[in-house]
Amino acid sequence: MKRFTTQPGIPRRLLLQAGIATAAAAAIPQQAAAAAIPQEAAAAAIPQEAPAAAPAEEPGWQRYVVGPADRHVTPALVTATTGDVRDPDALLTRGGTVTVLTRPRPTAPPQWPAGTTATASSFHAPNGGNNGTPTTYDPGNAVDADPATFWNDAEPATYPAVLTVTTPTAQTLPGVTLLSNADGVPVDFTIETWDGTAWQPAATVTGNSDVQRVVPFGAAVTTGSLRLTVTRTQDTPRGQYTRVNALWPGIVEPAVAPSVTVDFGKVVVGYPRVVFAWASDNNPGVRLAFSETLQFLGDRSDYTRGDGSGGPGTDQFAVPAGGADWLDQPGDQSGTQVHAEGLHGFRYLKITLDALPADAPAALPYGQVAIDAVALEFTAYLGTPESYAGTFLCSDDELNRYWYAASYANELTVDTFRATDCDPRNAASPTLEGKLVLHDGAKRDRDPYVGDLAVSGRTLYLTHPDAAEAARNVLADLAAHQRSDGFLPPASIVGYGLKLFDYPLWWITTSWDYVLYTGDRAYAADHWTTLTAVLDTWYPSVTDGDGLLSKGLNGTGEYGDYAFLPRSGRVTYYNVLYVQALRDAARIAGFLGYTADADRWTRRAATVAAAVNAKLWDAGAGAYLDTLDGPVRHGQDGNSLAITADVADPARAASALRYLDATTRQPYGNAFMDNNTLPGVGGASERVYAFTSYPEIVARFRTGAADSAIDQIKRTYGWMATHDPGSAAWEGIGPGGEPYEDGFTSMVHGWSTGVLPALTNELLGVTPTAPGFATWTLEPHPGTVTWAHGTVPTPHGPLTVSWERTASTFTLSITAPTGTRGQVSLPARARTTLNGAAIPGKTVQDIGPGTHTIVVR
To answer: Using CA atoms, how far apart are residues 840 and 831, in angstroms rounded to an integer?
Structure first.
C-alpha cells in the first residue's frame, strides 16, 4: 500500500465511521509553558482551575473538559532539539517560516583489509527476516563493510557472546567503534587484542546504551586479531540478543542527528501528519518516535506494534525534494522499504533526520529537510462540551479534574476496530473490523478486553451514551466466539485463544451493566444461551466440593487472570466475583422472565458467599485471604469485591478496609497485595492498579467511609494527574510511583477510569436499579464535599441532581425524567421535608418524574 500522496486528506470513513457527531467546541486552554519537564508537563494535561463556583452560579463544568476542540490537533510546544535545527518553533504553525533540519553526508568509516575473517561463539541461523527477505546473521556480517547486515548470537541472554576478528596482516588501531542494532545494544563488554602469545585487555565498557559506541584504547595497539566479549545486552521485548552491525577498525565519532521533539499537551491518538515544505534532492529520511512520557522517549518509541516482530520502533518517511503533506498511514513508501505503522497513541513526538540502513537508497540519513507544520488527525471519540450527556461538578476542584480526565482517557479508547492498528498479537478480527469498540488502551493493547469494559463501560454510559454500541459490539463479538464448553475468550487476541480464568465472569457483570444503563432487552435475549453456558456448564467444571471455584480443576492451572497473577486453587477474588456474576445473571433472568433460573443462581450465590466466609476469612488478620493454596497474603481485589458483592457483612467489611489501609497504603494509592509472596511478581505490595482500586473506593463510600474513599482517590489519581503524562489513567503504578512496566506501560487505560463512576454513583449518589433506569436510587455520600451536582444520562432523558450541605441542613434537588421512578436514601436521620411536606424516616420512596426538593434539618 503506497502511503505517500500530496494533500491526501483523512478518509471520511476513518473520521466518521464511529457515527459520532464532530461539532467543534471552543478551544480548551493549553497550559503549554508548564510542559517543559515531566511533572510540570503532566499538569498541562488536566486544566488547573480555581475552586469551582457554588451550584447556584454558572455550573462551569465545561472548563474541565480535556479533549481537543476538533479532529485536527496541533502540538502545544517544542520541548527539545538536537543537532543542527533552525527555527524549531516554526513547525507549530503552518505557513511563514519553516523548521530546517540539516545533516551532512557522513564520511566513510574505515574498513578491515581484504581477507579479514570473523568467528563467533554462536550465531543465529538464517531465516526470512522481518520482511520475508532471506537474512543471515553470521559473524562475517560485522566486518563486511555493510552496516545493514549484522552478527546475531544464537540464544537470548546467553553470555559471554564472543566475536573474534582476524586480519591477514597486523593493523595499528587507536581504538574501535562498535555499531549495533537499536534492539540489541551491548551494555557491558570488553575488547582484547592478541599479542602473539596471549590476549591482552584493550578496553572495558559498562552501562553502554549507544548504538554507535566509540571505544578508544589507552595507546595504539598493533595486532592481527581482536576479540569482543559481551557479558550483558540491552533487554528488549524480543529478548537479550547481541547484535553487531559493524566493528570498525578505528575511531568513528557519531554525528549528532538533528531532531525536534514536540509536546501535544496531553495524550492523543490517531494518524500523525507532517507537512514538509522542501528537502534536498538525495531522498533524506525522517524517523518518527512516539511516547506517552518524556521519560521513555528516545530514538525509538516507547511501544510500537512492530516491536513484537523486531521492527525499528520508529515510523519512516523519505522526503521528496518538492516537499509533501504526509499523513502517516500503515504501509511501505518504496516497495518493501521505508515502512510506517500509521496510528499511534502518544503525547510526545520526536522527528529525526535519519534513515534505516536497510532503507537505502530510497531513504538516506543525511541532507536537509524543511518542516512547515506537525499535527495529528484524531480518530477516537471526540469529547467536546457539546457531546457530554453526563456531567459532574462539586466543591472539590481536584475531584472535578479527575472526573473529566477519566472521561477523556476513556474517550481515547473508543475507536473503530481496524486490523492495521489493533494489537499485533493475532488480534485482528473480521467480525470486529470497522465496528466501534472500547479498546483496552490508546497506545497498547488496542484490543477490547471484557474485564476492562467492566470499568470503561460504566464510564462511557455516564458520559457519552451515544457511543454505547462500542460496549455492545465487544460483548456480542465475544459471545459469538464462545467455546463449546461454555468458556468465553477475554478478547480477540491470539485468535480469541487467550485463557483468563476470571473474564467470563466479567462478561456477565458487564452484560448486566450494559442492560442496566441502556435497557437493551434485545441484547439480553440474544445472548441468554451464552450466559447460561458460562454459569451452568463452564464454571461448574471448575467448582470443588465446597462450591468454591478452584483454578487448576479441569485443566485450568495455566490460565491467567486480569494481571496474569500466578494464583491457583481457591482464590477469594475469583469466588466473590462469581457471587457478583451469579447475582447479576439472576437480575438478567428476572428481566427476561426466567424466574426459575433467577432463583437457582441466587441460591448458588448464597452458597458460594457462605463458603467464602467460612473458608477464606482470616480472623487473625481481619481480612479475606488471597488464596487457601500457598503463602498467607491478603489481596485488594478479593477484599474489595467481597464488600461490593455483599459477601462481607458490615463487621467484616469494616475490618477488611481497616486492614487494607494499614498494610497496602502508598503515597500513590493502595497496593493490590499486602506482601510480596506472589512468585514472579516484583513489588506486589508497592504496585497499584486503579482497576482493583475502583471497587475498594466504592466499598469505602458504601460503608460510610466517604472521607477515606476521597483520600484514596486523591492519592491514586492525584499522583497520576501530577506526573507525566498527566492522564490520571495509568495502567499500573509500580514501586516508587513509576509506571509499573516502564515504557511498555499504557499510560491511558480504560480500566483505570473508575474514579468517574465512583464519583457519580457514590458521591453524587445516582445508580440505576432496573434496566434503562426504569428505577434508580439516590444515596449521596458527601464525605468532605459540601455540594455537588450532576446530570446522569438515561434512555428516558437526563436525570439531574444537586445537593448542598451546611452545618444544619442538607438540601437535595432532583429532576427525574418521565418513565422513571426512584428512591432516595438520605445521609442523616432528622426532620425531613419533600417538596415542603414533612415525611418520616431516612428513606424517601417512590420519587416520580418531575422536580423534587428534599430538605433535611
So the answer is: 8
Q: Using one digit for the tens of pLDDT, what is the confidence trace for 15-46?
A: 323 322 332 233 222 223 333 334 444 444 55
- Give one DSSP letter per residue of 781-810, joined into a string: --TT--EEEEEE--TTS-EEEEEEE-SS-E
Q: From 228, 351, 237, select the one nearest 289 (Cα to Cα).
A: 351
pLDDT of residue 309: 67
* Chain segment 174-203, per-residue pLDDT in tens: 999 999 987 789 999 999 999 999 999 999
Query: How far apart, in whole angstroms, are the C-alpha atoms of residue 193 and residue 177?
Result: 14
Q: Do 259 and 190 form a contact (C-beta atoms < 8 A)?
A: no
Q: What is the mean pLDDT of each successive set of 10 residues along the chain, which is 857 residues long?
A: 29 29 30 35 49 50 96 98 97 93 93 96 85 82 92 93 97 96 90 97 95 95 97 84 95 93 98 98 98 94 83 95 98 96 98 94 97 98 97 98 98 97 95 98 95 97 98 98 98 97 98 98 98 98 97 97 95 98 98 98 98 98 95 98 98 98 98 96 96 98 97 98 96 97 95 98 98 97 96 98 93 96 84 81 88 92
How deeply is 36 buried, as exposed, middle or buried, from its count of CB atoms within 10 A (0-12, 13-18, 19+)?
middle
- Ranges of beta strands (E only) in 354-441 are 367-378, 391-394, 414-416, 436-438
The secondary structure element, H or E, covering residue 319 is: none
Amino acid at 785: V
Spatial separation of the C-alpha atoms in residues 659 and 567, rounded to whole Å: 21
Q: How many residues does the chain have?
A: 857
- The DSSP symbol for 17 reads T
Residue of 390, 371, 473 lying closest to 61 (CA atoms): 390
pTM: 0.87
User: Measuring CA to CA, which residue among 502, 521, 511, 507 is closest to residue 576?
Assistant: 502
Instruction: From 518, 506, 458, 534, select the one nearest 759 (Cα to Cα).
Output: 458
Burial code (b: 16+ CB inside 10 Å, e: under 16) for 526-544 equals ebbebbbbbbeebbeebbe
> Percentage of residues in the chain with pLDDT exceeding 90?
84
CB burial string 147-181: b at 16+ within 10 A, e below: bebbbbbeeeeebebbbbbbbeeebebebbbbbbb
Q: What is the pLDDT of residue 833?
A: 79
CA distance 586 to 600: 8
- Sign of the C-alpha dihedral, residues 589, 594, 597, 598? positive
**Cis before residue 160, ω within 30 degrees of 0?**
yes
b (16+ CB within 10 A) / e for 374-384? bbbbbbbbbbb
- Mention every residue, 6+ apart, whose C-beta is less than 8 A from residue 711: none
Q: Which residues contact 484 (CB under 8 A, 6 or more apart)?
A: none
Single-letter amino acid code for the residue at 323 = G
Q: Which residues, in sequence order, are CB contacts of 168 under 8 Å at separation 6+?
A: 113, 114, 115, 116, 224
Q: Could you give the CA distance from residue 698 to residue 709 in angstroms, rounded to a whole number?
A: 7
CA dist 86 and 9 (Å) reads 28
Q: What is the DSSP letter of 731?
A: S
Longest dimension (CA), the chain: 106
Cell, residue 209: 546504551
Q: What is the pLDDT, as a whole number, of residue 308?
A: 67
DSSP 259-277: EEEEEEEEEEEEEEEEEEE
Q: Any idea what the Cα angle at residue 272 is, between residues 268 and 275, rounded to 5°?
A: 135
Calculate the average pLDDT of the chain: 91
Q: CA angle 322-325-330, nearest 5°?
A: 120
Residue 725: asked if its preceding bond is cis (omega within 30°), the reply is yes
- The alpha helices in 191-349, defined as continuous H runs, are none
Q: Which three cell numbers stand for residue 231?
A: 557479558
How are beta strands 259-279 and 367-378 bridged, if at all?
antiparallel
How many Cβ atoms sit within 10 Å of the Cβ of residue 92? 17
Q: Quickly tell me which residue has 445521609 as its cell.
A: 827
